[in-house]
Write a structure and sequence with these properties.
By secondary structure, the chain is α/β, with parallel strands linked by helices. It is built from six helices and seven strands, in the order βαβαβαβαβαββα. α1 packs parallel to α2 and α1 packs parallel to α6. 40% of the residues are buried. Bound molecules: glycinamide ribonucleotide (GAR).
């Protein structure tokens, strides 16, 4: 059976595009939701013929207002969305949206988690001096970039790398593993790590 996917993005939307164009098995991107009226992802959605919508996230900068998070959750539930994919959503989800979609919400992060959670993961990796970087798709829990890991992929870090060159190399891998993870989930075959705390 088909799974309706909502992609939540704040920025350029290249992962959103990859999910629309990639092989997601029985999953189909139904709508793009954004908290940023100027998100590049909105233009991409128009080009790709995918419905998109801006929803007010509340007055905070890095999280939702409780009332607004409830509105987002109700919107997605009413629409019959079965899987929520965070793709560069620069906002923490902790409340009603997480409760409504626990186990049915994924995130992509540009590091080999649990290393370098949070903002500017690529810059953190370079500053640390790692020789291998990468990306992770994981289910979302109430932590920041924590939650059971579904897929990861790695890239080498070169001496000559700047933040942007590394980010670009990681992004190529992000586009690949995100649709693979979504496909596995929609087929009921996502194998994930147990997170022990
Ligand atoms: C991607 O690199 C994604 O992994 C990252 O934002 C970028 C969005 O790019 N997400 C995070 O850092 C979340 N913690 P995109 O808008 O082109 O998909």
């Amino acid at each position: 059976m088909e799974t309706k996917i909502a992609v939540l993005a704040s920025g350029a939307g290249s992962n959103f595009k990859a999910l629309v164009e990639g092989d997601t098995g029985p999953g189909r991107v139904d709508i793009l939701l954004t908290d940023n009226e100027n998100a590049g992802a909105l233009e991409l959605a128009a080009e790709l013929g995918v419905e998109s919508k801006y929803l007010y996230p509340g007055k905070y900068r890095t999280r939702f207002g409780i009332k607004e998070e409830k509105i987002w959750a109700e919107f997605l539930l009413d629409r019959g969305v079965g899987l929520v994919c965070l793709a560069g959503l620069m906002r923490i989800i902790k409340g009603p949206l997480l409760d409504a979609f626990q186990g049915r919400m994924m995130n992509i992060h540009p590091s080999l988690l649990p290393a370098f959670p949070g903002l500017d993961a690529q810059g953190q990796a370079l500053n640390y001096g790692v020789k291998i970087a990468g990306c992770t798709v994981h289910y979302v829990d109430s932590g920041t970039d924590t939650g059971p890991i579904i897929l990861q992929n790695s890239v080498p870090v070169f001496e000559s790398d700047q933040r942007d060159s590394l980010a670009e190399r990681i992004l190529v891998k992000e586009h690949r593993i995100y649709s693979q993870a979504v496909k596995a989930h929609c087929l009921g075959r996502a194998v994930y790590s147990r997170v022990v705390r």
